[in-house]
Amino acid sequence: MTIRKALTVAGSDTSGGAGIQADLKTFQEYDVYGMTALTTIVCMEPKTWDHQVFPVDLGIVETQLKTVMEGIGFDAMKTGMLGSVDIIELVSRYIDQYKLDRIVIDPVMVCKGTDEVLQPENTEAMIEFLLPRADLVTPNIFEASQLAKTGPITTLEKMQEAATIIHDLGAKHVLIKDRGKIRPGKAVDLLYDGQTYEWFEADAIETQYTHGAGCTSSAAITAGLAKGRSVRESVSGAKTFVTQAISNGFPLNQFVGPTRHSAHRIPSVK
Ligand code: PXL
Q: Average pLDDT, whole number, for the chain?
Protein backbone atom coordinates (compact mmCIF):
# COMPACT_ATOMS: atom_id res chain seq x y z
CA MET A 1 0.00 0.00 0.00
CA THR A 2 1.29 3.43 -0.90
CA ILE A 3 1.04 5.91 1.90
CA ARG A 4 0.38 9.38 0.53
CA LYS A 5 2.18 12.29 2.20
CA ALA A 6 1.35 16.00 2.51
CA LEU A 7 3.22 18.99 3.89
CA THR A 8 1.70 22.06 5.49
CA VAL A 9 3.76 25.23 5.81
CA ALA A 10 1.73 27.21 8.34
CA GLY A 11 1.34 28.69 11.80
CA SER A 12 0.49 26.98 15.07
CA ASP A 13 -2.89 27.83 16.60
CA THR A 14 -2.28 26.98 20.24
CA SER A 15 -6.03 26.54 20.75
CA GLY A 16 -5.95 23.72 18.22
CA GLY A 17 -8.78 24.68 15.86
CA ALA A 18 -6.96 26.38 12.99
CA GLY A 19 -3.46 26.48 11.51
CA ILE A 20 -1.18 23.51 11.49
CA GLN A 21 -3.34 21.68 14.03
CA ALA A 22 -6.42 21.82 11.76
CA ASP A 23 -4.27 20.73 8.82
CA LEU A 24 -2.84 17.67 10.58
CA LYS A 25 -6.22 16.60 11.94
CA THR A 26 -7.68 16.89 8.45
CA PHE A 27 -4.83 14.97 6.81
CA GLN A 28 -5.35 12.24 9.39
CA GLU A 29 -9.04 11.97 8.53
CA TYR A 30 -8.08 11.53 4.88
CA ASP A 31 -5.53 8.87 5.83
CA VAL A 32 -2.75 11.04 4.43
CA TYR A 33 0.55 11.21 6.34
CA GLY A 34 1.03 14.82 7.47
CA MET A 35 4.27 16.77 7.87
CA THR A 36 4.85 20.36 8.96
CA ALA A 37 7.08 23.39 8.57
CA LEU A 38 6.08 25.82 11.32
CA THR A 39 6.23 29.55 10.48
CA THR A 40 4.58 31.30 13.43
CA ILE A 41 3.15 30.47 16.84
CA VAL A 42 -0.18 32.09 17.75
CA CYS A 43 -1.06 32.36 21.45
CA MET A 44 -4.10 33.89 23.14
CA GLU A 45 -4.44 36.04 26.23
CA PRO A 46 -6.62 33.83 28.48
CA LYS A 47 -8.86 36.63 29.80
CA THR A 48 -9.48 38.52 26.54
CA TRP A 49 -8.45 36.07 23.82
CA ASP A 50 -6.33 38.79 22.21
CA HIS A 51 -3.95 37.02 19.86
CA GLN A 52 -0.18 37.25 19.93
CA VAL A 53 1.75 36.09 16.88
CA PHE A 54 5.35 34.95 17.38
CA PRO A 55 7.31 34.44 14.16
CA VAL A 56 9.67 31.49 13.86
CA ASP A 57 13.22 32.43 12.93
CA LEU A 58 13.72 32.38 9.14
CA GLY A 59 16.67 29.98 9.37
CA ILE A 60 14.56 27.50 11.33
CA VAL A 61 11.78 27.69 8.73
CA GLU A 62 14.39 26.97 6.04
CA THR A 63 15.80 24.02 7.97
CA GLN A 64 12.31 22.52 8.24
CA LEU A 65 11.70 22.94 4.50
CA LYS A 66 15.03 21.21 3.76
CA THR A 67 14.22 18.35 6.11
CA VAL A 68 10.98 17.56 4.33
CA MET A 69 11.78 18.55 0.74
CA GLU A 70 15.28 17.10 0.51
CA GLY A 71 14.99 14.38 3.11
CA ILE A 72 11.53 12.96 2.44
CA GLY A 73 9.35 14.37 -0.39
CA PHE A 74 5.54 14.44 -0.56
CA ASP A 75 2.54 14.23 -2.85
CA ALA A 76 1.02 17.68 -2.21
CA MET A 77 1.60 20.72 -0.03
CA LYS A 78 -0.30 23.72 1.30
CA THR A 79 0.63 27.02 2.82
CA GLY A 80 -1.29 28.83 5.54
CA MET A 81 -0.18 31.73 7.75
CA LEU A 82 3.31 32.63 6.56
CA GLY A 83 3.92 35.70 8.68
CA SER A 84 6.50 37.68 6.71
CA VAL A 85 7.69 38.64 3.25
CA ASP A 86 10.96 36.78 3.92
CA ILE A 87 9.10 33.53 4.62
CA ILE A 88 6.91 33.98 1.53
CA GLU A 89 10.03 34.46 -0.64
CA LEU A 90 11.75 31.51 1.00
CA VAL A 91 8.81 29.19 0.30
CA SER A 92 8.70 30.30 -3.34
CA ARG A 93 12.43 29.60 -3.76
CA TYR A 94 12.01 26.10 -2.36
CA ILE A 95 9.01 25.41 -4.60
CA ASP A 96 11.23 26.26 -7.59
CA GLN A 97 14.34 24.48 -6.35
CA TYR A 98 12.51 21.20 -5.75
CA LYS A 99 10.23 21.65 -8.81
CA LEU A 100 7.17 21.07 -6.63
CA ASP A 101 3.62 20.77 -7.87
CA ARG A 102 0.18 20.12 -6.32
CA ILE A 103 0.55 23.33 -4.35
CA VAL A 104 -2.41 24.85 -2.52
CA ILE A 105 -1.99 28.44 -1.31
CA ASP A 106 -4.40 29.44 1.45
CA PRO A 107 -3.78 33.21 1.56
CA VAL A 108 -4.38 33.65 5.30
CA MET A 109 -4.59 37.36 6.12
CA VAL A 110 -6.41 37.59 9.44
CA CYS A 111 -7.49 35.32 12.27
CA LYS A 112 -11.08 35.77 13.34
CA GLY A 113 -11.17 38.19 16.26
CA THR A 114 -7.72 39.66 15.74
CA ASP A 115 -6.11 42.63 14.13
CA GLU A 116 -4.53 42.13 10.77
CA VAL A 117 -1.68 39.69 11.09
CA LEU A 118 -0.66 40.19 7.53
CA GLN A 119 0.60 43.59 6.48
CA PRO A 120 -0.09 44.93 2.97
CA GLU A 121 3.46 44.09 1.89
CA ASN A 122 2.72 40.43 2.64
CA THR A 123 -0.28 40.54 0.31
CA GLU A 124 1.94 42.02 -2.40
CA ALA A 125 4.55 39.29 -1.78
CA MET A 126 1.88 36.59 -2.04
CA ILE A 127 0.77 38.05 -5.37
CA GLU A 128 4.34 38.20 -6.70
CA PHE A 129 5.82 34.99 -5.30
CA LEU A 130 3.03 32.53 -4.53
CA LEU A 131 0.14 33.02 -6.96
CA PRO A 132 2.27 32.15 -10.03
CA ARG A 133 3.29 28.88 -8.32
CA ALA A 134 -0.18 27.88 -7.09
CA ASP A 135 -2.14 24.99 -8.56
CA LEU A 136 -4.97 26.34 -6.44
CA VAL A 137 -5.43 29.44 -4.29
CA THR A 138 -8.31 29.41 -1.77
CA PRO A 139 -9.26 32.94 -0.64
CA ASN A 140 -12.43 33.83 1.23
CA ILE A 141 -14.20 36.90 -0.16
CA PHE A 142 -12.15 39.31 1.98
CA GLU A 143 -8.84 37.76 0.91
CA ALA A 144 -10.01 37.64 -2.71
CA SER A 145 -10.85 41.36 -2.62
CA GLN A 146 -7.34 42.09 -1.33
CA LEU A 147 -5.58 39.92 -3.92
CA ALA A 148 -7.70 41.15 -6.84
CA LYS A 149 -7.98 44.73 -5.52
CA THR A 150 -11.65 44.82 -6.45
CA GLY A 151 -13.00 46.49 -3.33
CA PRO A 152 -15.67 44.64 -1.31
CA ILE A 153 -17.11 41.56 -3.02
CA THR A 154 -20.87 41.65 -2.54
CA THR A 155 -22.32 39.80 -5.53
CA LEU A 156 -21.79 36.56 -7.42
CA GLU A 157 -20.69 38.61 -10.47
CA LYS A 158 -18.01 40.34 -8.36
CA MET A 159 -16.82 36.89 -7.22
CA GLN A 160 -16.39 35.92 -10.87
CA GLU A 161 -14.54 39.16 -11.62
CA ALA A 162 -12.14 38.62 -8.70
CA ALA A 163 -11.57 34.96 -9.69
CA THR A 164 -10.66 36.07 -13.22
CA ILE A 165 -8.19 38.67 -11.94
CA ILE A 166 -6.54 36.23 -9.51
CA HIS A 167 -6.27 33.62 -12.27
CA ASP A 168 -4.59 36.22 -14.48
CA LEU A 169 -2.07 36.80 -11.65
CA GLY A 170 -0.88 33.24 -12.27
CA ALA A 171 -2.83 30.81 -10.08
CA LYS A 172 -3.92 27.82 -12.20
CA HIS A 173 -7.16 27.41 -10.24
CA VAL A 174 -8.96 29.87 -7.97
CA LEU A 175 -11.49 28.88 -5.31
CA ILE A 176 -13.31 31.84 -3.72
CA LYS A 177 -15.38 30.91 -0.66
CA ASP A 178 -18.26 32.71 0.97
CA ARG A 179 -20.39 31.84 3.95
CA GLY A 180 -23.68 33.70 4.14
CA LYS A 181 -22.50 37.18 3.12
CA ILE A 182 -23.35 37.09 -0.57
CA ARG A 183 -26.30 34.71 -0.47
CA PRO A 184 -27.88 34.67 2.97
CA GLY A 185 -28.19 31.18 4.37
CA LYS A 186 -25.90 29.69 1.73
CA ALA A 187 -22.22 28.81 1.66
CA VAL A 188 -21.34 29.45 -1.97
CA ASP A 189 -17.89 28.74 -3.42
CA LEU A 190 -16.66 29.51 -6.92
CA LEU A 191 -13.98 27.46 -8.69
CA TYR A 192 -12.38 28.98 -11.79
CA ASP A 193 -9.76 27.25 -13.94
CA GLY A 194 -9.33 29.97 -16.58
CA GLN A 195 -12.23 28.62 -18.67
CA THR A 196 -15.18 27.51 -16.60
CA TYR A 197 -16.86 28.98 -13.54
CA GLU A 198 -18.17 26.20 -11.33
CA TRP A 199 -20.29 26.82 -8.24
CA PHE A 200 -20.36 24.64 -5.13
CA GLU A 201 -23.21 25.37 -2.78
CA ALA A 202 -24.30 24.14 0.65
CA ASP A 203 -26.73 25.43 3.24
CA ALA A 204 -24.79 27.66 5.67
CA ILE A 205 -25.09 25.97 9.04
CA GLU A 206 -26.41 28.28 11.78
CA THR A 207 -23.41 28.37 14.11
CA GLN A 208 -20.63 30.59 15.41
CA TYR A 209 -18.37 27.58 15.84
CA THR A 210 -16.49 27.92 12.58
CA HIS A 211 -12.96 28.65 13.79
CA GLY A 212 -10.50 26.88 11.51
CA ALA A 213 -12.94 26.28 8.66
CA GLY A 214 -10.67 27.90 6.05
CA CYS A 215 -7.62 25.89 7.12
CA THR A 216 -9.70 22.71 7.21
CA SER A 217 -11.02 23.33 3.71
CA SER A 218 -7.60 23.96 2.15
CA ALA A 219 -6.08 21.02 4.05
CA ALA A 220 -8.86 18.72 2.82
CA ILE A 221 -8.23 19.82 -0.77
CA THR A 222 -4.48 19.23 -0.31
CA ALA A 223 -5.16 15.74 1.04
CA GLY A 224 -7.37 15.03 -1.97
CA LEU A 225 -4.59 16.11 -4.33
CA ALA A 226 -2.08 13.99 -2.39
CA LYS A 227 -4.34 11.00 -3.07
CA GLY A 228 -4.11 11.69 -6.79
CA ARG A 229 -7.52 13.30 -7.28
CA SER A 230 -8.05 16.24 -9.63
CA VAL A 231 -8.44 19.78 -8.32
CA ARG A 232 -12.16 19.67 -9.08
CA GLU A 233 -12.70 16.35 -7.31
CA SER A 234 -10.61 17.51 -4.35
CA VAL A 235 -12.58 20.77 -4.05
CA SER A 236 -15.89 18.94 -4.25
CA GLY A 237 -14.88 16.39 -1.58
CA ALA A 238 -13.49 19.11 0.68
CA LYS A 239 -16.79 21.01 0.55
CA THR A 240 -18.57 17.98 2.02
CA PHE A 241 -15.80 17.47 4.58
CA VAL A 242 -15.74 21.09 5.81
CA THR A 243 -19.54 21.30 5.92
CA GLN A 244 -19.53 18.27 8.20
CA ALA A 245 -16.69 19.71 10.33
CA ILE A 246 -18.69 22.95 10.76
CA SER A 247 -21.85 21.07 11.68
CA ASN A 248 -19.79 19.32 14.37
CA GLY A 249 -18.28 22.58 15.69
CA PHE A 250 -18.39 23.15 19.44
CA PRO A 251 -17.62 25.82 22.06
CA LEU A 252 -14.06 25.36 23.32
CA ASN A 253 -14.34 28.22 25.81
CA GLN A 254 -16.27 31.50 26.02
CA PHE A 255 -14.29 32.97 23.11
CA VAL A 256 -13.82 30.35 20.45
CA GLY A 257 -15.63 27.45 18.84
CA PRO A 258 -13.63 25.35 16.42
CA THR A 259 -14.79 23.09 13.65
CA ARG A 260 -14.35 19.43 14.54
CA HIS A 261 -12.69 17.19 12.03
CA SER A 262 -12.97 13.79 13.59
CA ALA A 263 -16.55 13.55 14.82
CA HIS A 264 -17.63 10.91 12.34
CA ARG A 265 -14.82 8.54 13.16
CA ILE A 266 -14.42 7.36 16.71
CA PRO A 267 -17.39 7.57 19.11
CA SER A 268 -16.68 9.92 22.02
CA VAL A 269 -16.27 8.56 25.52
CA LYS A 270 -19.49 8.87 27.53
O1 PXL B 1 -7.93 30.85 10.65
C2 PXL B 1 -6.77 31.51 10.29
C3 PXL B 1 -5.57 31.06 11.08
C4 PXL B 1 -4.54 30.43 10.39
N5 PXL B 1 -3.43 30.00 11.01
C6 PXL B 1 -3.27 30.17 12.34
C7 PXL B 1 -4.26 30.79 13.10
C8 PXL B 1 -5.44 31.25 12.45
C9 PXL B 1 -6.49 31.90 13.25
O10 PXL B 1 -6.52 31.85 14.46
O11 PXL B 1 -4.09 30.94 14.43
C12 PXL B 1 -2.02 29.67 12.98
A: 94
* pLDDT attached to residue 222: 98
Residue 175 has pLDDT above 90, yes or no: yes
Residues in the chain, overall count:
270
Whole-number Å distance, alpha carbon 24 to ligand 1 midpoint, is 13
Centre of ligand 1 to C-alpha 270, Å, is: 30
Indicate which residue's Cα is closest to atom 5 of ligand 1.
19
Pocket test for ligand 1, best of 26, 79, 81 (most atoms within 8 A of CB): 81
Whether 263 is covered by a domain: the verdict is no
* pTM flag (> 0.90): yes
Within a domain: residue 138?
A: yes
- The range of the structural domain enclosing residue 68 comes to 5-247
pLDDT by residue (tens digit) across 207-247? 999 999 999 999 999 999 999 999 999 999 999 999 999 99
39 within domain boundaries: yes
- Split into its structural domains, the chain has a count of 1
Q: Is residue 263 predicted with pLDDT exceeding 80?
A: no
- Domain containing residue 185: CATH number: 3.40.1190.20
In this structure, the residue with its CA closest to atom 2 of ligand 1 is 111
